[in-house]
């Protein structure tokens, strides 16, 4: 089933004008061509169509990395044909993944000794990582309920309404009730107090977000841990915490090392992070780390022996590329702690400059926080003339992709513009963006004034038309009467 819609016209054939020196026969769009075409023609046709895509570096909607060093690109290209699942054939690649898992586990303060191996796995982004972590929580909860002779058919998970759609997918696909803490105007992340109130004996975990997609804000995982510990003690529950650090996992350790959100908190049993976001790798790679082996049920791990040796695997898919894992290892050893810290600090400084520039326009309310991921989210102070959706659409005329959206449940009346500041979004680009936003605001102001003036003219014209018609009728009648009196016909 094709879920996405086809864009463009409904023509059955592709126009191959730019490749006419190689091929003159139009190509079918939705059927396999009868004959092969020259490689140059195939390249040119596809290349020309892709020109209509947006520019990745000007796509400020995406958290995903859009630039890497040439050396890292070379490593990716040399390993693009390696299937990671063939661990026996590519043992070094497997070793590099294991090194990444251990480096990230130590970064998140996992209780792993120097001679111990951390528990974790590379995934295709944080969506798969969340699915795997959620399955581990569900299975552990089910096993515990079975051992106690209690029902285990109605698991639930507690999150904020600001979670990404991958959590909704997990709940839907694996039949887990999603209990969402609603937001409120001015408070756009999960309230730990309300979250703990929703916890019951069927709750498999509470999911906290370190870096909300909506405004980049960190949720208070430490307070959640304290409140949940107290509730567990009072009720006899054993409800754990998962931290969705997709965006913030490669930011917080470097900029806020004293912030307690990770495995330093006893109830945090697993953490996911996106290597392709602030891990600085092209999509798609993610990671999920568990506190200990006890937090990952053995029955979820499969062992296969038909690829050359006995190999354990815990993934939703089977085959996947090796190149992103290799790129992740490159970034970790290339940058080290200080390198990541410098990049994240530069991103935060650029985000601060962008906030200050938007503040100077006196047209926006900034709703992102100073402590969080490098994201600038804002709403319009005055929406009587136009909305953030109009601003977003107009910015595309200057090639910027800046998303506009409404906040989740109970804060839907707040519409927001959001800019994600990545490593390749320089201070010069930030200055240019502010300039273009000011230009767009001026254009929208002028368009609004023109529309109002035109509307007023139309209203006056309609009113004057009635008056003039009545006056004309009276004048004609007077001329007719006067003409009769003078004998002039």
From TrEMBL:
<dbReference type="GO" id="GO:0005516">
    <property type="term" value="F:calmodulin binding"/>
</dbReference>
<keyword id="KW-0663">Pyridoxal phosphate</keyword>
<dbReference type="GO" id="GO:0006538">
    <property type="term" value="P:L-glutamate catabolic process"/>
</dbReference>
<dbReference type="GO" id="GO:0005829">
    <property type="term" value="C:cytosol"/>
</dbReference>
<dbReference type="Pfam" id="PF00282">
    <property type="entry name" value="Pyridoxal_deC"/>
</dbReference>
<dbReference type="InterPro" id="IPR015421">
    <property type="entry name" value="PyrdxlP-dep_Trfase_major"/>
</dbReference>
<dbReference type="GO" id="GO:0030170">
    <property type="term" value="F:pyridoxal phosphate binding"/>
</dbReference>
<keyword id="KW-0210">Decarboxylase</keyword>
<keyword id="KW-0456">Lyase</keyword>
<dbReference type="GO" id="GO:0004351">
    <property type="term" value="F:glutamate decarboxylase activity"/>
</dbReference>
<protein>
    <recommendedName>
        <fullName>Glutamate decarboxylase</fullName>
        <ecNumber>4.1.1.15</ecNumber>
    </recommendedName>
</protein>
<dbReference type="InterPro" id="IPR015424">
    <property type="entry name" value="PyrdxlP-dep_Trfase"/>
</dbReference>
<keyword id="KW-0112">Calmodulin-binding</keyword>
<feature type="modified residue" description="N6-(pyridoxal phosphate)lysine">
    <location>
        <position position="277"/>
    </location>
</feature>
<dbReference type="InterPro" id="IPR002129">
    <property type="entry name" value="PyrdxlP-dep_de-COase"/>
</dbReference>
<dbReference type="InterPro" id="IPR010107">
    <property type="entry name" value="Glutamate_decarboxylase"/>
</dbReference>
<comment type="similarity">
    <text>Belongs to the group II decarboxylase family.</text>
</comment>
